[in-house]
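R.M. (postdoc): so does anyone remember the format we settled on? I'll just put the structure tokens first.
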């Protein structure tokens, strides 16, 4: 079944054996296939639904999307947040104009980075 199709890119999901499925991504030049267990696909779908809900909440209530640096460190681990900042993947906003004002992060952006890392581990472990 074609799940995603745009211009020259197709993504298909087909059942494989008991409790597994095969993802087939293809372009006009190349076809790549990976096999994902059904529970992993379920977890990916749940992660993407959670991410979609966070982005929708950000659109409706932008001020409620902001979390403090301390809260971000607690929820996503300080080392990971600092790594994302260092790599330029995460953006900060200050709550005021002074140097000592609170540093804020977007919860939706933090969640997207966490889910992306998780997806990267799943996909790269399957292809190695």
């Amino acid at each position: 079944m074609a799940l995603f199709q745009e211009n020259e890119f197709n993504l298909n999901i087909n059942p494989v054996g008991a409790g597994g499925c095969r993802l087939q991504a293809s372009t006009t030049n190349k076809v790549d296939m990976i096999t994902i267990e059904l529970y992993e696909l379920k977890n990916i779908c749940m992660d993407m639904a959670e991410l979609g809900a966070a982005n929708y909440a950000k659109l409706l209530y932008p001020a409620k999307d902001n979390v403090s640096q301390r809260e971000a460190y607690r929820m996503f681990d300080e080392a990971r947040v600092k790594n994302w900042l260092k790599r330029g993947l995460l953006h900060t906003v200050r709550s005021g104009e002074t140097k000592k004002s609170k540093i804020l992060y977007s919860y939706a952006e933090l969640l997207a980075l966490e889910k992306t890392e998780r997806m990267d581990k799943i996909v790269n472990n399957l292809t190695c």
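R.M.: ...and that's the designed sequence above, right after the tokens. Also worth knowing: The chain has one domain: 2-127. Confidence is low (pLDDT under 50) at residues 1-6.
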